[in-house]
Amino acid sequence: MSDRDPREQVPTAPMPDELPAPPRLRDYTKLPLLLIAAMFVAGAVVYSRLPASIPMHWGISGAPDSFWPKSFGSVFFMPLMSLGLYALLVVVPFLDPRRRSLKLSFRAYNILIDAIVGLQAVIFAATLIAAFNNGFDVAKVVLISVGLLFAVIGNYMTTVKQNWTFGVRVSWTLSDEVVWRKTNRLGGYLFVVAGALTIVSAFLPGPWAFGLMMSAILGILVITYVYSYLLFRSRHPEA
Q1: Which pLDDT score, from 0 to 100, does residue 8 have?
Q2: Which of 38, 65, 90, 224 could lock 59 by a disulfide, CB 3.0 to 4.6 Å apart?
Q3: Residue 115 domain-assigned (yes or no)
């Protein structure tokens, strides 16, 4: 007799023919392309009015600590990076050995892409504003946006199916569907909490804000890693 809870038995894996077709290009969200196009247009509109030196990086204190001379590369660095990131996020699922399983969670994956490129667009807009207003608090905008991104990720991690692209992907979650499901559910809740803490950190002094955000991220990594390992060992003591 098995001593496992019947509710935790691994469901029978669907046969390949029962899985949906792998993702195709037409299945991907197009919103990021609109956001990236808007970034290019905004950069072109303000290009002639931008100062000769543009802030591109902000330190822990929240003050800009790196300036680039105005050029095509500096002004359009973020839109170009966003375009490359979008292309990468489109290509990666085609390399996923479980891409047909990923299709079951493709709505969540598309929302993740929207959120990531949306964050890039917000940071780009904040950077343009800061180029005209040195007192603009870019760090606060970034922290609030990152917190919202964490919350979005967490909301969808709780339901994502086993795959090699999106979720808590370690050997024991990929080897046991119950471990995957429970770990990603916990990871989702932790991401939402981390998002809330990151938003709160936006209203703290710079070093405290950075420390709180990094502690939240580190906490997610440690807790999900240890939890998934212990859960796997409890289900597979012979391993």
Answers
A1: 52
A2: 65
A3: yes
